[in-house]
Sequence to fold (791 residues):
Amino acid sequence: GITLSHKVLRMRARPKILLATTFEEACEYYRRYRRNLLGVISDVRFRSGEEIDPNAGAEFARRVREDNPDVPFLLQSTDARNADLAASLGVSFLHKESPQIKHELERFMLDSFGFGAFIFRMPDGREVARAENLRQLRECLKTVPAESLRFHSDRNHFSAWLKARTEFRLAARLRPQRVSDYASLEEMRQSMIEALYESRRETYRDAVAHFTPETFASLSTFERIGGGSLGGKARGLAFLNMLLREHGVGRNLPDVDVVVPPTVVIGTELFDQFMDENDLTEIALSDAPDETIREAFLEARLPGPLVRHLEALIKLVRVPLAVRSSSLLEDSQHQPFAGVYETYMLPNSHEQDRHRLRELCATIRLVYASTFSARAKTYLKATPQRPEKEKMAVIIQHLIGRRHSGRFYPCFSGVAQSYNYYPFGRIRSQDGAARVALGLGMTVVEGRGGVRFCPKYPRHLPQFSSVDDILRNSQKTFAALPLGETDGDPHRRYRPRLYAIKQAQLDGTLDPVGSIYSHENHTIHDGMARPGTPVITFAGVLKHDLFPLPGLLQELLEIGTKAMITPIELEFAVNMERTDDQPRTFACLQMRPLAVMRELTRLDLNRLDRKDLLCQSPRAMGNGRIKGIRDVVCIVPDAFDRKDSRRTANAVADLNAFLRMENRPYLLIGPGRWGSADPWLGIPVNWGQIAGARIIVETGFSGLSVTPSEGSHFFHNMTAFHVGYMTVNPDNGEGMIDWDWLLSQQVIRSGTNGLRWIRLGQPLVGLINGRSCEGVIVKSEEQAQPGEPPA
Fold:
């Protein structure tokens, strides 16, 4: 067996001995189990009916031979003269008083029942080859003489030998085959070789096998190193791998491979061993800076057995690699830990295996160190979990993409969700949503942009409703992994970089996803054939069906939602270029449950008086009432300068830490996107820096309209912690904030760049209607009494 459970299954399925004490019982056993019978060992003389029948064994042998002449049958007797009787029936004979009885019985069982090697013989009995296992059997089939193949096939020897090894499906497939079923013996030979290979590959697909160089990538694309847990992210990938196979996703798309990339997972047992052997627990759980913890982990030694497996892996794999976290708690439904731990990417292109191994070991240590980063510890404090309970598995995965002028990236990557928080027009929440971007997925998961669409209605793109909208909202940069040698801090070295869209045009990767903007007539033309400025619109995919993306996403989201019994989020990457040795590929990179705020309360917000509202948003996420908020942390848009957004993020983090220590939940209001990776689009905080907020409001300001951050790790964490989320763009007539009232309240602290900490006399109340996706913040609890809607 290839796993512990597989070994247990084989033990339970191993051959059983049925003891019949009468002729009638023997006949009944044969009738019931004839299709799975390996053979029969019988006395010549035993009871039939009420009496001892001296020919019961001979009669039973005759009946079995008439029904199936291929079943091995051994008659045994103390009377040596019964050897002639056995010969006349065409069965074997064993003399019970032979001094070699044990050896002769063992030899019969090994040769005839299939417990020993498969011995290829010619019709005259001459041995021509021997196979100890399935792999050797397949190799022998390629070279044995055709006469030997015919001899064994006509007698179902292959089927019997496979049954003895619990390969029942394969045995059933080969048993009915005869030479007459094929145009030639060579065609039959090839069919059997393919059947053996496919059966072995399916066996490895059915389980997360332990890593071996002989099977990885050729037979199995998902293997593990070490014991313990696979972690949440790897469990999701293994589950997704099984779903793809069971449902045959993409089977009707002959020119597209729908896959989970080849993956090796390092189990949490080796993480525990690494921590213990290097005595790292004390510094890991301390308040030491992240840089200090990373340095301690980089100086530590990985366990010897792990390094030996990595040496074998690095000799096999020469493509770029993603080294990803998979902690015990990651991707759980209620605290998904999305984006909390680190992912690193390796070019894996150096000529020397030792150099590439050293880089791989360094990134594994860095992923281990991210378990104890300040961000992870802050996140854990917002959950019932404790840092010392967390354990880390590591995913080593083929990076999806192609090489382009010293860079490596896929045609596009994206995130799809089976629940749409911002439905519009005829689109319903249950229709789902997706966001895609040229290059690596960092653009999407970090909230840097991309094209957002509904897989069911892919041509309905409200953010691209005009030429000006396209120019304003289209992707400006793309992420790719540089393949050249780089120096510096390993934590920053093994990461993608951002490149201008013009560079992708030089790489020739814009054709399926790009369009051209014509300055002369202020128009957008699909495709890249005209002169002009390139813009990313995904028109070739979403309008002209150059790749079946919408249909694939609908199918995968439906399958995943049914399988997990909850809405899901799917990360993916696509290679659209077809090469001689590689088809077009849709790679599934992650599947996790999506924390949807349940619509438990029906609120009629229209009955509220506008003068009682601090904030009104036509695009809100959540449902119900959020009460008890007396503190407001806000950045006044008129006083905000985008070039100082990083300093503002640090100041907000300091206030968040103080308010959390005081156990004071607060309302957070700011211009642009909270958590944006681009400091010019908002405040670049991470989740741990604002984890004390109960309601978050993103507001537009002069020259910038806020686009919701859906699809990013940051946004996923907000939904998991049931933080109310509202978007307003007053300049566009989308919602309002009563700044005059808010700034007239008690200001506890004023900071640079428009930062204010305000303390209210009465607690605010947030009200969100999960059905209409509308929300308000009411200035006091007395005013927050909307009536129930009419029946």
In short: The chain has a mean pLDDT of 86. Residues 91 and 477 are 78 Å apart (CA to CA). The longest strand covers residues 755-769.
